[in-house]
Write a structure and sequence with these properties.
With 316 residues, the chain is α/β, with parallel strands linked by helices. It is built from twelve helices and eleven strands. A seven-stranded mixed β-sheet has the order 6-5-4-7-8-11-10, sandwiched between helices. The protein has a four-stranded antiparallel β-sheet with strand order 1-2-3-9, with no helix packed on it. Bound molecules: zinc ion.
Length: 316
Amino acid sequence: MAKDNFNCPICECTRSETLFFSKKEDYGDILRCSDCRFVTVFPIPSNEIITSSYLGLYKERENMEAVDQLKFSQVRPSVSYYFSKIDSSKKSNRIKFLDIGGGLGYYSASAKELGMTPYLIDLDSESLNFAKDVLGIQKVFQGTLETFCASTDEKFDLILLRHVIEHLPDPNHIIAKIKSLLSENGVAIIETPNNKSIEAFLNFGLGKDFIRKLSKNYSDVSFRTLIKKRVYAMRPPIHLNAFEISNFQVLMERNDLKISEYKTYRLGDPIFWPNFKSYNSNGLKNFFKSISFIILRSVFSRKEYSGIFLSVTHKE
Ligand SMILES: [Zn+2]
């Protein structure tokens, strides 16, 4: 069934298919664009609903008192990898690193260790206080990307949008803002869950959790319907969008940007996702679960793993 007023934020097509109907008023249904296969929630939930779904999320999950050395050590290989994407002749100048939605600031602190000047934007003031007071990040900004852009003329050499774009309402608008902030030879790194990847779904714990959370708010959600409809990365009102790599090719083309490199990565990837364990090998039961996960993954993943990595530059 097509939705009136739908206008795909990726390709501007107006035809869509409703995949899952919302059980709750104001949550929006889950739709797939008939042209580019982008999956989104429509209509977008109100700001109040989006904001309230984040309340307390940081505090529950994160230690806000001292530096978490394990977390820091897991972030360093990622930031070194991002840094390696910058043309080495540019590294003689001080590299300005912009971390959009960077939370507690571990990526910024790691960038600082590598000699870059970090700028951190986030909505959560407590996270920013931690970044400032505990990690020593001086340039922090509380607000949206929109308000940050309005407040500065600066350009950035390395921009990081790591697992953020799926949380924000208008991906095309976000990419346009990133373009406006990117220095002439700058590189933007974008990471997001891959909606084409069945990998996380095959993991017993994650798959079950995903179905449980989605079925709270949407009707007809089951293992069978999710596989049939190929939805692996949606969770409104937290994840409002679910991408595949081709969606970004359209987005970058629209914004006159170029994808210089792209790939997908596995859960637990040592560079991109070391904090995300793909399986637990403790105990005999878990050992057999892990083995079956690895076999299922190699049979069904078809080289489409859970995370998308993109590095993006201006067109020459
Ligand atoms: Zn589309």
